[in-house]
Design brief:
By secondary structure, this protein is of the alpha+beta class. The protein has 11 helices and 17 strands. Among the domains are: 174 residues, Uridine Diphospho-n-acetylenolpyruvylglucosamine Reductase, domain 3, CATH 3.30.465.10; 55 residues, no CATH class. It has an 8-stranded antiparallel sheet. The chain has a 5-stranded antiparallel sheet with strand order 3-4-8-6-7. The protein is globular. This is Glycolate oxidase subunit GlcE. Keywords: FAD, Flavoprotein. GO terms for molecular function: catalytic activity; FAD binding.
Length: 370
């Protein structure tokens, strides 16, 4: 049960292939036969989530195309299998961008896979997350019914915010068919400053800056240097540069640095050691853990490497108002996400029962109980 298509050109006008009916028929057949489905877009994020038994493949990479784009209204509607590079190229032609600066993790990345994983990049603390950018969605539930939620502008969105519920659900609640996203103008000026700092000082600076009227668009700390990206009007960026100080990176070096950081090509991410992501309160001091820690999102996201006791890591994250995830590598047959409290797990199970009552869509990808 596989629906496939190739990607012949980066010109979005030829990426206009609506496979909604074929996808709906495939899900309805799976429902009738009680056959679970593995949902796949570009396959660039297959490393994320729990490793589950093989199921019939539902391929969305051929379901492509920009349905509606209104630059003046700051929204775009497109099919979930549309490649990220096609989407961002089209936005760039109009001088616009996705606010959440998503990582690709491979050239075949699609917007549907990005939203299903809930991935956001360095700009996330200052312009919002992937979930924040979603205005509406059209999905297939586990019974093969097409459902539509949300709208094209925020003032038209009423009722339960089901569209954003799908972000980060790893396809366990529905097959994403079509999404409407908020877009933003590209800043006219951008520069990156580098400062030497100890871990505690770097965290303190990032938190202090976050409370100031500064045009911040990214911050990152690699254990020795703190990097801060400023984006906005020329006058605002220049004033902030004079206020913060530090060494200015050449534009090409800065662009390469943030690309490598976002795509996890930084030397820290190299190798096969398990990669842990901890979300904590931004002002959390350096965590008492061995090894190097990368810090970004104004202090709110920490990256660790190596084989570690999952319970200890997650307990430490919880003590600081957050959660811990085995992001990449390691033992993926068990639970990789932070355990849910029983009341939250019960809510998740009720949602799963409502959208996918026979547990056919990516079963077990998030939690074994889902």
């Amino acid at each position: 049960m596989c629906i496939m298509a190739s990607c012949p050109s980066p010109n979005w006008s030829v990426f206009d292939m609506d496979q909604s009916q074929a996808l709906q028929a495939a899900v309805q057949e799976a429902h009738a036969r009680s056959r679970p489905l593995t949902i796949r877009g570009g396959g660039t994020k297959a490393f994320y989530g729990r490793q589950t038994p093989e199921c019939d493949l539902l391929e969305l990479s051929g379901h492509q195309g920009i349905v509606d784009y209104a630059p003046n209204e700051l929204f775009i509607t497109l099919r979930a299998g549309t490649p990220l590079q096609v989407l961002e190229a089209q936005l760039a032609e109009a001088g616009q961008m996705l606010p959440f600066e998503p990582p690709y993790f491979g050239p075949a990345a699609t917007i549907g896979g990005t939203l299903a994983c809930g991935f956001s990049g360095p700009r996330r603390p200052y312009a919002g997350s992937a979930r924040d950018a979603v205005l509406g969605m059209r999905i297939l539930n586990g019974q093969g019914e097409i459902l539509r939620f949300g709208g094209q502008v925020m003032k038209n969105v009423a009722g339960y915010d089901v569209s954003r519920l799908m972000v980060g659900a790893l396809g366990t609640l529905g097959v994403l068919l079509e999404v409407t996203l908020k877009v933003l103008p590209r800043p006219t000026h951008s520069l990156t400053l580098r400062q030497s700092a100890a871990p505690a000082a770097a965290i303190q600076r990032m938190n202090h800056w976050a409370g100031q009227p500064l045009p911040l668009s990214a911050t990152a700390y690699d254990g020795e240097h703190l990097y801060v990206r400023l984006s906005g009007t020329g006058s605002a960026v220049q004033a902030a540069q004079a206020r913060l100080g530090g060494e200015r990176l050449a534009d090409a070096e800065a662009a390469s640095f943030w690309d490598d950081w976002r795509e996890q090509r930084h030397v820290f991410f190299q190798g096969d050691a398990p990669l842990w992501r901890l979300a904590v309160a931004p002002a959390t001091p350096p965590l008492p853990l061995p090894g190097q820690t990368l810090i970004e999102w104004g202090g709110g996201q920490r990256w660790l490497r190596g084989r570690r006791d999952a319970t200890a890591v997650q307990r430490l994250a919880a003590q600081h108002g957050g959660h811990g995830t085995l992001f990449r590598g390691g033992e993926r047959g068990g639970e990789v996400f932070h355990p849910l409290a029983p009341p939250l797990l019960a809510v998740q199970q009720r949602l799963k029962a409502a959208f996918d009552p026979h547990t056919l869509l990516n079963p077990g990808r998030m939690f074994a109980a889902l």
